[in-house]
Amino acid sequence: IRMGFANRRIAATASEVEVTEEVERLCAASFFCQTDLFALRGAASDVGAVSLREALAHRPPRFETLVQTFPFFIDSGYERIKLMPAELRQFLTARWLAKRINGNEMSVSETVDLFIADSFDGLLIPSQFEVTAGWLASMNEEFCRAVIDLAPQAVLLYGDLAVVSASLAHRALDRTIEGL
Questions:
Q1: CA-CA distance, 133 to 117, in Å (whole number)?
Q2: Is the pTM of this model over 0.90?
Q3: Mean pLDDT, residues 34-53
Q4: Backbone angles phi, psi at 122, to 5 degrees
Q5: How many of the other CB atoms lie within 10 Å of CB of 176?
Q6: pLDDT tens string 87-134
Q7: Local structure of 38: helix, strand or coil
Q8: DSSP assignment of 33-52, as one string?
Q9: Is the distance from CB of 5 to CB of 16 less than 8 angstroms?
């Protein structure tokens, strides 16, 4: 994000921190909407995409220009942009959520609720949410405990085990093996 910001400072009067937080917020919106497309403010339709008209309503129009010209976003059709690489979205979403939890804007239980689905076998974290859940488990110990109860493989496969406590990593491994 820093690389894109330095060359585009004139496009918006936002600080590097503001731009980073906004990109993380946009990633979270696209993650939970399950689309990697963003419809520009001038788009006739935002079907199948996160509307920048709504998502950036609190920002001046020049901020949209800043987002459009970032190296992480590419044109993806008429009045649409896409985040690249797609894997970045899961990490930035997890970072955005971790900040919400750490800032007491969201509780861990509210955050877990965003990830879980009911199945015939009980509550689970759908596979399309596991990467982000794994990243977030690496960023928040309480969330990690909750994920281990629901999808321990997410912590093992997608979390950063270098920052997860050894006891939680062992618990995730034991729970994963039990589930086999």
A1: 13
A2: no
A3: 92
A4: 110, -165
A5: 17
A6: 899 999 999 999 999 999 999 999 999 999 999 989 999 999 999 999
A7: strand
A8: TT--EEE-TT-S--TTSEEH
A9: yes
